[in-house]
Amino acid sequence: MSIFKRKQEVQPGSNGSALSELALNSINDGVVIVDRAGKVRFINPAAKRMVEYNSMLDPIGADYKDVIRLESKEGRELSEQENPLIRAVMNNEPLDAFRGSLIMGVTGKRIPVAISVIDVKDLAGNKIITFRNIAKELEEEGAQTEFISTASHEMRTPVASIEGYLSLALNPQTATIDERAHGYLEAAHAASKHLGKLFQDLLDVTKSDDGKVLPKFEPVEMVGLIQQMSNNYCAQFNQDNKVNYTFGATDGRLSASDLRIAQVVYASIDVNFMQEIMDNLLENALKYTPKGGSVWVNVRGDGDRVLINVTDTGIGISADDIQHIFQKFYRADNSDTREIGGTGLGLYLTKQRVEAMGGKIWVESGFGEGSTFYVSLPRISTEEYEKRMIVKKNQEQFAAMQQARNPQPQPQPAPATPQPTQPSPQPAQPQTTNQPVQVNQPINNGGQI
Ligand code: ADP
Q1: Stretch 216-225: mean pLDDT
Q2: In the beta sheet, which residues pair with residue 361?
């Protein structure tokens, strides 16, 4: 190595910091450093441009909450409790590429950003906040989403028709088939059902990614609502004594406090979103718990949050898989899950729904040790609940009055599927059976399967 080179290596100091400064001044990503007291210690030019903090004032020394103001993806002003940036800076909660809208201080415009917080763990308690403009990314994703949404929509209809025809073929009242053909058709029916569910999930996910489905908040009492939603699964839980189900318990045992008068906990949520969340968590608990296991559901007030848990004694999730299960299409791949059908979209959608209502979802589990999924949502006080109920009732009365004044034409009922008007489909069958599938009443049965 030449002396010249060695000299360069031992004296990088000033060059190094000059280069760091050059990089921070030139990049398009915003970088802000805040100290333990929440005061801005450093802000690079890209961040200054994006936040548009009052042009007359220096953001250095200002409160970061006044400098970086966020709205949710859905355009909702985030309260301090729901704001993931504040939770990350104040409570050290992780924040990695959270998508939200940055409110520009002077013009009031919104920029879509992905925002992260890095805890540098130094003595001053500094945190580095980075954010990047994701407008172009969202545009490209929008085009992709549009394509997936159209394709899933178009494909759902023929798949529903195939599923309907297969049901007809499998129904002894409408078709006579031999035992081997029955087995093949059952496999085809299960596969078409899986495909139908995949398209439906894809459609839901693309609509949700697109921001087309916004929550409609209404005040509700959570314990009663979740109990009702969970109890709807009793028949499936009890079928063939599959699993023992208990409502109102966290760890399987109903404690003295569980047995006292049930707690009343209020929240402002979208009931349809909540139904989807519970459907996904309860269907998973049922799917991933072998026969003879147990499932418990509980709801309780936890300070200013409502905490729901769905616990099962099923196959559990390994530490490696836990960090990915809320991602799109992720399915844990092991000998247990391979046997169980799924699309890997349910928990992704569930997380989207929870976050759209200002909540959080997480799981505690270990492989072979069962799982507990937690959903935490902002809670409202009894007074707040009563106030919102009055507003809701007034809105309903107003809507009823409008409806009475201008009655809308009644929608016609949609025709039931399948509607086989053509000769019954003859899917290509492997020629392994002597007796062909015989469909007795293939034409126009009015969709009765
Ligand atoms: P899927 O359609 O595959 O069930 P989800 O998005 O609902 O998709 O779940 C993602 C993955 O998380 C599943 O494939 C499974 O590996 C794991 N998982 C979800 N819920 C449970 C559970 N209650 N017990 C064990 N594993 C679970």
Answers
A1: 95
A2: 375
Nearest CA to ligand 1 atom 23: 285
Report the largest interatomic distance among the alpha carbons of the chain, rounded to a whole angstrom.
Answer: 93
Could you tell me the distance, in angstroms and rounded to a whole number, from the CA of residue 344 to the centre of ligand 1?
7
- Measured between alpha carbons, how far is 2 from 6 in angstroms, rounded to an integer? 6
Interval 61-75: pLDDT, tens? 999 999 999 987 667
Q: How far is the CA of 375 from the centre of ligand 1 (A)?
A: 16
Atom number of ligand 1 nearest to Cα 337: 16
* Residue nearest to ligand 1 atom 7, measured at CA: 346
Q: From ligand 1's centre to the CA of 325, what distance in Å? A: 7
Q: What is the dihedral of CA 74, 76, 79, 85, to 10 degrees?
A: 40
**Average pLDDT across the chain, whole number:** 83
List, for residues 347-368, the tens digit of each pLDDT value: 999 999 999 999 999 999 999 9
| Ligand 1, CB cutoff 6 Å, lining residues | 280, 284-285, 288, 312, 314-317, 325, 330-332, 337, 342-348, 371
How far apart, in whole angstroms, are the C-alpha atoms of residue 317 and residue 340? 14
User: Measured in angstroms, how far is the CA atom of residue 30 from the centroid of ligand 1?
Assistant: 36
Q: Give the pLDDT score at 10.
A: 44
Q: What is the pLDDT of residues 241-300, one digit of tens each?
A: 789 999 987 665 555 555 444 689 999 999 999 999 999 999 999 999 999 999 999 999
Which of 204, 233, 317 to probe ligand 1 with, by most ligand atoms within 8 A of CB? 317
Distance 74 CA to ligand 1 centre (A): 27
Q: Atom 13 (ligand 1): residue with closest C-alpha?
A: 331
pLDDT for 317 beyond 90: yes
